[in-house]
Design brief:
Helix content: over 70%
Largest sheet: 4 strands, mixed
Number of helices: 21
Distance between the termini: 22 Å
Number of domains: 4
Structural class: mainly alpha
């Protein structure tokens, strides 16, 4: 025992510096790659494509590779420890945000290239010039021609403008998701800053273009509903038609407002509400035009007298919705935060429960942390409750809009539905947070903390609890370990790969193929074996501090479990020299190959010639008798073997017949000619290489673990 311990300590001394060096190398590599990501995102708004974002994601893959390696090295000191524990989550979140940034950049590039607002400006100028020609001449034909031309131009640009509007909603959502990443540890702070700058810069350029496009395209896309067109038509037509067109336009605006509000309650951004607010401005503008043309029409009089105030009431309710919208999803993270804090607290508890010598420190640390988390959690919940009350009151105010005359009914219903959905969402998320934060908010009275403190204060109970946990983990290990034993899932799957490589391939490459697959299988199983060894070693490390207990019963049990685990560890180590874990050095592999060769040679017994060489290959077997010959190819009876046999025998026939026609037959094959004719039959003979069983390729038994 003393000798073994000395060698183990020596191994640790030798391995320690190399591991530390690699940890430092990985940390530097992570920081370097984060710096490269930051550089790639710098000034992204000015790029002509999103290729720099793709490059940043490539560097992110390098970060992930280094972090994965760091985690396997199990560093104990920062910054490597923090990187190993938290960077996998940072990487996932940043990847998602960067992909949304890429979506924004691609949309920006596409919009820049389309030059829609410039084209709309030119089209608007041309349309107004076209209309002015008819107005100056007071040409009555201008009514139909202006309408037709306006509709043609409107159709040309309305679809494209609508697509840009739809893309604006996508951009707004992408902007919100792209800013989801909020980590700031180390170099991540620089990466986050460049990410946010990129999002803001692209969004600013995008919104400027949207405003420019709106000013140039929105009215033009309305076709004959364009105000300039209506003015021109009014000068050439009559007020009755103008009133009809304006009324239809007002109803259309109400329908569009209701449409944008449909589903707005579940959206993360405010773009739908923004559009509804803009339509309220359009409503007021159209009502003003209708007022100028209403004459003595009673319907038009009521609309222009009543609807403007109702439109202002609608706008106020919409602005209340927009005011609450940024707060709606502020409750979503509360439950997750509590769960994370609770997991971290319980992780601290478990660490001290596994270290009896640090029990006194554990009592102090767990008490302090639980009290602080309890105070912080209660304050967060109280603040959230207050915030919910404030937002709920605003939404109730927005729901007071009740005008439902004609097409206004759908607007009212959608507005109230949006407010209700937002209310339910916030209340549901707060209720979820209360449930998730319930124990944490109790501080040191948290029942899990109370139980842990009781255990930490009672050394025997602490040892007993830790021992029970280790024994449960050991039982789980033994259960999982069965997958590596003969007949176990992992063992079976890999043995079947070997059987398939042997049974289902052609005979010429079977040795190379089987040996290659045998090595691959051994590598896979070897990696699994090392993982299980590491896992068991950690359990044995956890068990070590418990063996110092003064309680004789617990001391005996700890010693017994160490013996069991040590024996299991040794058996698993020795398993590396058994069966399929030996790769191509497995004697059963070579025995299978020898058996296949034996069966092949058996079918060649008695042939006039074996391995008879002709152009393009060798014939397995040639039989000659009285001017008649048999040409035989020998193949394993597998799908690949049968296919190869049919192809090969057809090739042999073609070659021999060419040799006969060209008078090139060798002496043996010349004996196959009789009366000037070539008399040869061609066939493939098959031998059974399979089936074989697991006992033909792997060990079938292994001692059980106690």
């Amino acid at each position: 025992m003393k000798k073994t311990l000395t060698w183990g300590m020596l191994a640790l001394l030798v391995a320690g510096p190399a591991s530390a060096d690699e940890i430092d190398d990985r940390v530097r590599s992570i920081e370097d790659n984060l710096g490269r990501i930051k550089d790639k995102l710098d000034g992204i708004v000015s790029d002509s494509s999103s290729s720099d974002i793709d490059s940043a994601l490539d560097y992110l893959n390098n970060v992930k590779s280094d972090v994965d390696r760091l985690k396997s090295l199990d560093p104990q000191n920062d910054p490597a420890k923090t990187m190993a524990n938290y960077y996998p989550d940072y990487i996932s979140k940043f990847r998602e945000s960067a992909q949304y940034l890429k979506r924004m950049k691609d949309a920006q590039v596409k919009a820049d290239e389309s030059r829609l607002h410039e084209r709309c400006q030119e089209a608007d100028k041309n349309l107004k010039s076209f209309m002015q020609g008819f107005i100056e001449k007071k040409d009555p034909n201008g009514v139909s021609k202006i309408s037709d031309e306006a509709e043609k131009v409107g159709r040309q640009y309305s679809d494209e403008y609508k697509r840009l509007q739809d893309m604006h909603s996508d951009m707004d959502r992408a902007r919100g998701y792209a800013r989801y990443f909020s980590e700031s540890h180390g170099r991540w702070s620089d990466v986050r800053g460049e990410l946010y700058d990129g999002v803001s810069d692209i969004w600013d350029r995008w919104t400027r273009r949207m405003e420019e496009t709106k000013s140039k395209c929105q009215e033009l896309a309305k076709g004959r509903d364009y105000d300039a067109v209506k003015d021109a038509l009014a000068k050439l037509g009559d007020n009755n038609r103008v009133r009809k067109e304006l009324t239809e336009k007002l109803n259309s605006l109400l329908d569009q407002t209701a449409s944008y509000l449909s589903g707005a309650g579940t959206r993360t951004g405010t773009s739908e509400i923004d559009y509804a607010i803009r339509y309220s401005d359009d409503l007021l503008s159209q009502l003003e035009q209708l007022k100028n043309a209403r004459g003595e029409d009673d319907t038009a009089k009521r609309m222009t007298d009543v609807w403007p105030d109702k439109t202002k009431e609608l706008r106020r309710s919409l602005e209340l919705l927009k005011q609450v919208k940024p707060q709606q999803f502020s409750f979503d993270t509360l439950a997750t935060t509590c769960k994370t804090n609770d997991d971290q607290l319980m992780g601290t508890v478990r660490a001290y429960l596994g270290a009896p010598d640090d029990a006194d420190e554990g009592v102090r640390v767990v008490t302090e942390r639980s009290e602080k988390l309890g105070n912080d959690t209660r304050q967060q919940l109280e603040a959230a409750e207050k915030r919910l009350g404030e937002q709920d009151k605003l939404l109730e105010d927005s729901k007071r809009f009740s005008f439902d005359e004609g097409r206004w009914r759908s607007v009212r219903e959608r507005l109230q539905e949006t407010a209700s959905v937002m209310q339910r969402h916030m209340k549901t998320k707060l209720d979820e947070a209360k449930a998730a934060c319930g124990k944490l908010s109790q501080g040191a009275s948290n029942p899990d903390v109370v139980s842990a403190l009781k255990t930490l204060k009672d050394r025997d109970l602490m040892v007993k609890t830790s021992l029970e946990r280790i024994l449960r983990d050991y039982e789980d290990w033994k259960k999982d370990r069965k997958g590596l034993k003969p007949g176990g899932r992992f063992r079976q799957e890999n043995a079947e790969k070997l059987l398939q490589a042997y049974c289902d391939g052609d005979e010429y490459q079977v040795a190379d193929r089987l040996q290659r697959v045998a090595d691959e299988v051994a590598s896979v199983m070897g990696n699994l074996q090392r993982q299980y060894l590491d896992r068991l070693r950690r359990l044995m490390d956890d068990l070590k501090p418990l063996e110092t207990t003064k309680n004789p019963t617990l001391k005996t049990e700890a010693a017994r479990q160490r013996r069991n685990m040590s024996a299991a560890y040794k058996r698993l180590e020795e398993a590396g020299g058994l069966g399929i874990l030996r790769g191509r050095n497995n004697p059963k592999i070579n025995m299978l190959l020898e058996n296949g060769n034996t069966k092949h040679l058996a079918l060649q017994t008695g042939c006039t010639a074996m391995e008879y060489e002709i152009p393009g290959g060798r014939i397995d077997c040639v039989n000659v008798s009285d001017g008649f010959c048999e040409v035989i190819e020998i193949k394993p009876n597998s799908k690949t073997g049968r296919s190869a046999g049919e192809e090969q025998i057809a090739n042999r026939k073609s070659v021999i017949e060419d040799m006969f026609r060209n008078n090139q037959l060798k002496s043996l094959l010349q004996r196959c000619v009789k009366d000037g004719r070539l008399n040869i039959s061609y066939q493939v003979k098959y031998y059974q290489r399979c089936p074989v069983g697991m006992d033909d390729i792997d060990v079938t038994t292994e001692e059980m673990d106690e």
